Request: fold
Amino acid sequence: MEIVRRIPRMKEIVRDWHRQGRTVGFVPTMGYLHEGHLSLVRESKRMADHTVVSIFVNPLQFGPHEDYDRYPRDLDRDVEILSREGVDVLFYPSAEDMYPPGYRTYVEVEGLSQKWEGASRPGHFRGVATVVCKLFNIVQPDYAFFGQKDAQQFVIIRRMVEDLNMNVEVIQLPIVRESDGLAMSSRNVYLSPEERAIAPRLYQALQLGQRLVQEEGERDAAKVVEAVRSFLAQEPRIRVDYVALVDPQDLEPVETIRGRALLAAAIYLGSTRLIDNVILNVK
Ligand code: AMP
Reply:
């Protein structure tokens, strides 16, 4: 596996692959890799001739009081994992190369970026859309892989790709979970042992909502949201940020559940913010 730090070298490698008629799969990450990331890497390896993984903790998508400085990092371990997976290139640019002095250009996906996660994290999706746009321009992938864990992020990136006529097919893959149901996340290391024991309640609450809809026939979104909220409220150490039942295309709240809907939630456990979601499927 080649580790590439410089943007021109990354472009050169991909130019050669494309000249030879090979396809390129791309998995953008912030590192501190887990099985969720690796599910994306494996699908890329399956679909494309070459796979590029990026590790870049993007300062632009963190708020001033968020965890940019303490975000977990372990490059040596990540390199070992990605080599073992047979990844062709790890792209590991510096913040200085990505945002040199004089940098002025940002990508804003209006509307979709301001709700839910965006309401709690102003500027977050502007940072995400900007960095993903830059990474797509550098890596020129034929396919790019994202997790359903960040469902709103995927909706925004899909919109950006369509609106800006980008030549990439974006693919979303299911959430990978720990054996107790907690969605895997690099941020789970922030949890104390007590918080870690409580954390699976987030998924349990979403599953409760899913059962209400899919097994008990509830169609009133407000009732499902209320049931999820009151389940979470039983644990005093959980502070609910939002519970949302929305249309998976435009993220607008749903009143009556029909077809597919996204049930998503964000909570605080101590100072750690956790997100998770499930797809509701009504025949
Ligand atoms: P991150 O490193 O957190 O920026 O995540 C990089 C990519 O991995 C994003 O597309 C995430 O949605 C995806 N991802 C993170 N956690 C999971 C998970 N538990 N299951 C599947 N994909 C995930």
